[in-house]
Amino acid sequence: MANTDTWALVTGACSGIGFEIAQNLAARGYSLLLVSDRASELEQAAHRIGSSHGVSAQTVSMDLARPDAAGVLHEEVRRRGLDVEVLISNAGFLLFGEVAECDPCRANAILQLHVVTPSLLARHFGADMRARRKGHILLVSSASAWTDFPGTAYYGSSKRYLRSFAASLREELRPWGVNVTCLAPGAVATDLYDRGNGAAKAAARFGLMKDPAEVAAAALDGMFRHKAVVLPGASAKLMAAGSALMPRCVVRFARMHTGFLPRPQD
Length: 266
Hints:
Blueprint: E1 7-11, H1 16-27, E2 31-36, H2 39-53, E3 57-61, H3 69-79, E4 84-89, H4 104-132, E5 135-140, H5 153-173, E6 178-183, H6 198-205, H7 212-224, E7 229-230, H8 234-245, H9 248-257
Parallel strand pairs: 1-2, 1-4, 2-3, 4-5, 5-6, 6-7
């Protein structure tokens, strides 16, 4: 096993982009602290990555949607005596539907997970990195952060917050030798979507849904090159540019005629 004191912390590390980022970091020689609320899958991921790459892979099983999650996790890292040089804030989930019909518990969970916890993780670990005058923070936003669609009020707005937060934090920490990068992927073939349905299969086949390993490689390549924003693949770039330029009348037409959301019946 590699003998290294260079640690990377990855949230949402059981599958998808988080797992692939963890694998990529391990291949670069980083020891890993993997965090998720799926304890069994987390242990399997740590064993698989540690065995494949010969690095230490520790786990913390916890619900990152808890209001105190960031502080508890930071304290656990300090208790273990680890210095985190790379923070990957990736944990999240997709929530689609109208605000007026959303389960308040689900709304609270996505805001905690996408807004509160990443912000406070950046505060705690960013302060540590600033004191050491080195480090990287990667915040996972989305290409959907460039516009506002009905049905994605919680998801899209929280991802837009992460995009803005990352930009501000980047300028705050830059003079201290700490880099902040925002990853904004388009659709990725992960558990976030139902990959068994026909639309998802077709999207993956035609390259509209990116492979998580490709997204992870682009994310880390951009982060270590100190890029501000990484939009992996042509589809993410087109989605961000097209969404930002899309007239509101097109959004309203889609809302009323696609049937994805309820509408008043005469």
